[in-house]
Amino acid sequence: MTDKPANTMWGGRFAMSPAEIMQEINASIGFDKQLAPQDIRGSKAHAAMLAEAGIIAKTDAREIAKGLDKIKAEIDAGTFEFSRALEDVHMNVENRLKELIGPAAGRLHTARSRNDQVATDFRLFVRDAIDGIDAALENVQQALAEKAEAHAATVMPGFTHLQPAQPVTFGHHLLAYVEMIARDRGRFADARKRLNESPLGSAALAGTSFPIDREMTAESLGFDRPMANSLDGVSDRDFALETLAAATIAAVHFSRLAEEIVIWMTPQFGFVKLSDRFTTGSSIMPQKRNPDAAELARAKVGRIASAFQGLVIVMKGLPLAYSKDMQEDKETTFDALSSLRLVMAAMAGMITDLEPNAEAMRAAAGRGYSTATDLADWLVRELKMPFREAHHVTGAIVKAAETKGVDLDQLSLTDMQAVEPRITKAVFSVLSVENSVKSRTSYGGTAPQNVAKMARQWLRRLEKARSKV
Ligand code: ARG
Fold first, then answer.
1. Which one-letter DSSP state was computed for residue 370?
2. Marked catalytic residue, from 275, 282, 338, 429
3. What is the largest CA-CA distance in the chain?
């Protein structure tokens, strides 16, 4: 087992091959094979640059490019055999290239190290992932804005402390998430901007003595510029941290929405219905309809936040430049980003599927003296009462209603006048939930006309962004 150098890539000075357990702890091919498309893109750009700069022959560069295309096709077809003895995706690809094109393959790694190679591959991967995530976030916004437009005037209770607070509209509630997701998209876009510099050409850590053209590789890989410091180039993982932080915050948003769907679906609330497409049954209780997709969307934030935290801990205290610790950056990042993609797809599906029960929402909106603030505002407006006093008077009226066991708009004028004699029957105009929401016309408020306008604005904005691509 340990009698011959096993690794033809770096085994020159080694008399023995690595112990089984060394291979096991060292190999990353099990997960970094996901970087193969980015690895091949990076290698093609590097080889073309080497030829352009006169560092390798143009004929060799052509062979290398052809071989790499062939490898890409093999990987796409699922026929490529990844080997653990070759450790990682970089050496697997290079080894196959040698099988395909012979000695010219050995020229590809000129003026390059796996350190800048993996930094480049991983950056490209995260950048691709951000682009996919942005499109998926936009999708969820679209689903939310469409639902919001349809339910701009559907009244539901608004909560604070999960206690009925003031009536709002369902559309207004959904548009809150559209705003949150807009900030998520902003965070990913910011991360992408800072990410978009090329580490390629940093080589192992110190740069290279070959006359490479880093601008050229940066440009051909779609980066804005080469990174300015080779030590930073190989050791920076901020781009993954920032992206995971953005993913964590987005996942927090989705977990809040998922939790609301779970609550709204309980028979006690009965605010919304999800179809069979997004619910499951119980193997023992035939009556059950469980919101599993929402529950899982609520839970995925756990692994996404852990990936962020895990990478923070890996990077903390790492001296410059590259250390093998950094190989631990990938597996959890891959998992976190694909988990987020799953959550977003499930969310978009659930939002589109979800049917609100307007009756149940309306009834609940009227309970819990939810228009008490409207009463207090009326006392301020009509009787010129200071708000603090109006708050006190309203409290007494709520208490009277509670004693009688009725809602505020059911309480008689006489009962109200027993608390404040100047109250007139005009007060009833503000006590219904419809009038309550209608009156909240301040910018960003829940009035149906506001909500309809906002929803339409979002739909137009999303439409415009789509037509630009
Ligand atoms: N598989 C390695 C990683 O993911 C590639 C870089 C290896 N570099 C090295 N000097 N051993 O980090």
1. T
2. 282
3. 101
d(CA 358, CA 156): 8
Nearest CA to ligand 1 atom 12: 327
Rounded to the nearest whole angstrom, what is the distance from the C-alpha of residue 114 to the centroid of ligand 1?
A: 6
Any catalytic annotation for residue 161?
Answer: yes
Residue type, 244: L
Instruction: Please answer whether residues 140 and 354 qualify as being in contact, where contact means their C-beta atoms are separated by less than 8 angstroms.
Output: no
| DSSP SS3 for 197 | strand
The tokens describing 380, both together, are: 């301020």
Q: Is 240 in the pocket of ligand 1 (CB under 6 A)?
A: no
Q: Return d(Cα 436, Cα 456) in angstroms, integer.
A: 22
Residue 144 · residue 178 · CB < 8 Å? yes
Residues 202-218: tens digit of each pLDDT: 999 999 999 999 999 99
- CA–centroid distance, 335 to ligand 1, in Å, is 19
- This prediction has a pTM of 0.93
Q: Per residue in 252-300, pLDDT tens?
A: 999 999 999 999 999 999 999 998 889 888 787 878 789 999 999 999 9
157 within 8 A of 356, measured Cβ to Cβ: no
Q: Percent helix, strand and coil across the chain, each rounded to 5?
A: 70, 5, 25
Residue 3: how many CA atoms within 13 Å on its side-chain side? Answer: 1
Query: Does 326 contact ligand 1 (Cβ within 6 A)?
Result: yes
Give the pLDDT confidence of 176-233 residue by residue, as tens digits: 999 999 999 999 999 999 999 999 999 999 999 999 999 999 999 999 999 999 999 9
Distance (Å, whole) CA 117 – CA 356: 51
pLDDT at residue 195, rounded to an integer:
98
Find out whether the beta carbon of 409 lies less than 6 Å from any atom of ligand 1: no
Q: Whose CA is nearest to atom 1 of ligand 1?
A: 88
Q: Which of 118, 314, 325 to mutate to test the pocket of ligand 1 (most atoms within 8 A of CB)?
A: 118
